[in-house]
Amino acid sequence: MSETGTGGPIASDETFRRLGMAAALVVALSVGAFLALLFLSGHVIPGRQLINYGLLAELAQPSSDYYGAYINILQVFLLTAVMSVICGVFVGLGRISKTPLTAGIARLYVEFFRGTPFLFQIMAIYYGVPAFFEPGTFPLTNFTWPAAIVALTLNHAAYSGEALRGGIESLPTGQMEAARSLGMSYVQAMRNVVLPQAWRNAVPAVGNDLIILVKDTSLLSVIAFPELISQFQYTYSQQFEAWAPLVLVGVFYLTITVPLSALVNYAGEVADPSRRAEP
Amino acid sequence: MGGGDDGTESETDGTPTEAETVRVASGIPYPPFEMMENGEPTGFDYDMGAAIFEEQMGREMEFLDRSFDGIISGLQNGNYRVIMSAMTITEDRKENIDFSDPYFTAYQTVAVLENSDISSKAGLRGKTVAVQKGTTGAEAADDLQTEFDGDLTVSRYDSSASAFNAVLNNQAVAVINDNTVSAEYVNQNDEELRFVMGDGVAAEQRDDPPEYLTLSIEEYGIAFRKDDDEFRERINEILATLRENGTYDDIYSTYFAG
Amino acid sequence: MNEAPLLAFENVHKYFGETHVLKGIDLGVDEGELVVVIGPSGSGKSTLLRCANRLEEIQEGEIRLAGTPLTASDADVNRLRQRIGMVFQSFNLFPHKTAAGNVTLAPRKVRGIADEKAEERAETLLERVGLSDQRDSYPAELSGGQQQRVAIARALAMDPDVMLFDEVTSALDPELVGEVLGVMRDLAAEGMTMMVVTHEMGFAREVADRIVLMADGEIVETGEPERFFTDPETERAEQFLSKLL
Ligand SMILES: Nc1ncnc2c1ncn2[C@@H]1O[C@H](COP(=O)(O)OP(=O)(O)O)[C@@H](O)[C@H]1O
Ligand SMILES: [Mg+2]
Predict the structure, then answer these.
(1) Is B118 in the same domain as B72?
(2) Is B171 within a domain?
């Protein structure tokens, strides 16, 4: 093996690049072939139409229950996105607190909500909380929505809180000290100096979590929340048709997550403090 | 789906002798009709099969676990002789297979809180009912929703336990479900739950309807190939015998409360 | 001259865990006086300044500003800090604010001064440090010398009674040191009370009213600059000065 050679022990940069391209092509072709087979199956395999287009058209009609489910997850997403980010600020601040009690409680909170599955949390809230009441005496008669909002908020506040903590801890301590030395209180320094900068650092992680939040709404199907997966299960059990409702549900999720992901990327670029140097 | 996997040689010619083993297909688990206990199949269907084929006919029974969604094609392919799998007799299915006389009747019933003021089907209008996803109870609720011009909310849960919890937790006023399953819950929680009483479809169609309100009736039958009439008629006779001699009631009370 | 110093350290002890970093510091800085603190690295100079601003807590002794105990547990720290300006080696400008934004932030948020008023004042201060044409620039667009001058303007915006400087030129390219020292020289000439930690001996000798030499958490020697640099009293000071050559 030559010391001056361009090739390392495994592969040269050029070989690596070609391998990467080849792998990407293979994946793209496989996916393309799969989609073609799926959407054109009626033409490819005689008598075997995987997507029932008639049913798909029916399910996509404006009067379809799928829109209600779609609006429901949009609403619960928007509401819990705002609430979990706001609560996340307090979780993040608790995590960096110098008061051991506050920091300890915040840590336990995060450990619990990151350390147990969301499915467990939603069940604990929806089935567990009413169990404290005598049968028939639980006062909230439409508990599905409150349970969904509370569970999603508690869970995702833990993640945004950690993202924000990371954003705060990546700042030089001099920022806080400079602000305090000017006479700002801890709260003033946090609000005006630390948090605005920490936010920018945290935007990619928080944005990533919001995308996961959209997908977590699917787990609400276990508490009879009328969302898209329940709609799919319903159609499937009625019609024994998998692909028509699957295609519809997939498209519905992507109409939320694709724009959201573009928004997160854009916000991440705008927020990147290193871009401040540009005029 | 369903097979071609196991030996079919003895049953493909359609003229079995009395000495042969009877192969019975069942979609395990579907308690209490069919389930596994300590690695052995058991349940209402299993016990009925044993009573019919072993006790009455004196033959061996082989109780096979087959996926329910392919179980009919397996029967048509001759992979087994009959299906005993809590299978509802429907016109659709009758196009492809034949059924024995009904050996089990399931009613769709309405269970509510003991202190509920709902006393009839009409009382459900505008309310929320809980069902288990994909069950005939869910279908009965959908039909009721149509009957009420949409003025009924149907909450769909993954299990019957969750549906009953929804009623205990004030998330729904009633569970619409099979009488057998619901009877278990109502008996276990007889301080808190009760059936809505009154006549329903059962009263229109039967001489001895149950006391509770029935939204629909389903009858389960043993499924046969279309060309197996002789065997089917023999089993219809045995079913009648089992009802007369008390065996049916014994098996029934082993698995069902109500 | 007042009999009581404006900023007074009395028997100040500071520990980091087991490490005894300040071992009984007694020092007074009079109003209008410029005290330069020198000493080898690790001798406790920065810690002394940080204690005066309560960025560090002391374990024994007292620090007073115009007679008010800074270090008392019930002291109004936020109020007292407004009266003590601090400039750091690493500038610590707020990167998300313009030069003017850095200068106006504390007056607006802490003092509640109206935006326009604060802007006007920032204009004056930036002019004073020679940066009136950079008011809308972000820190990342400024040179180190410019950033440090903004940091000085930012500290001055709170009208402090005392200014603390902790090696404010150490992070600068040599050609930028002069502009910052120039601003400090002007401040001294205007009669600002200053406590300056620096390795710039030329500046110390020229501008200081008094030199304080620290070593191992103690004050080894103090004196008029001329006398201190030409005729040090202690062996420790002699050693330190000889190493500088
Ligand atoms: N935050 C801290 N934790 C522990 N030790 C520290 C801390 N800050 C400074 N020290 C120690 O205190 C001593 C004095 O440090 P410092 O005041 O920075 O010295 P100087 O500014 O004179 O170089 C050094 O030994 C240093 O290691
Ligand atoms: Mg230092």
Answers:
(1) no
(2) yes
- Whether the pLDDT of residue B204 is over 80: the answer is no
Model pLDDT for residues A187-197, shown as the tens digit of each residue: 999 999 999 99
User: What value does the CA radius of gyration of chain A take, rounded to a whole number of Å?
Assistant: 25
Structural domains of chain B, count: 2
What proportion of chain B, given as a percentage, has pLDDT over 70? 92
Q: Where residue B4 falls among pLDDT bands split at 50, 70, 90?
A: very low
Whether residue B17 is contained in a domain is answered as no
- Measure C227 CA to nearest chain A CA, in Å: 34
Which protein residue has the closest C-alpha to ligand 1 atom 16? C44
Residue B169 inside a domain? The answer is yes
| Candidates A174, A184, A200; nearest CB to C109 | A184
Q: Is the distance from CB of B222 to CB of B84 less than 8 angstroms? A: yes
Q: A touches C (3+ CB pairs < 8 Å)?
A: yes
Sheet of B22-26, strand order: B61-65, B22-26, B82-83, B223-224, B98-99
Same domain, B91 and B116: no
Same domain, B90 and B122: no
* Residue among B115, B138, B156 whose CB faces A136 most closely: B115
For A53-271, give the CATH class: mainly alpha
**Contact indicator for C118, C75 with CB cutoff of 8 Å:** no
pTM here is 0.81
pLDDT of A49 over the 90 cut:
no
CATH number at residue B118: 3.40.190.10
Chain B residues closer than 8 Å to A142 by CB: 128, 171
Locate all alpha helices (DSSP H) within chain A, ordered by sequence: 13-39, 41-44, 53-59, 65-95, 100-115, 118-123, 144-169, 173-181, 186-189, 195-216, 228-239, 243-271
CB-CB under 8 Å, B155 with A139: no
β-bridge partners, B22:
B61
Q: Is B4 part of a structural domain of the chain?
A: no
| A182 contacts on C by Cβ (under 8 Å) | 81-82, 105-106, 110, 154-155, 157-158
Residue-level pLDDT at C166: 97
Average pLDDT over residues A21-34: 96
> What integer best gives the mean pLDDT of chain C?
95
Q: Where are the domains of chain A?
A: 13-44, 53-271
Full residue range of the structural domain in which residue B121 is found: 106-217
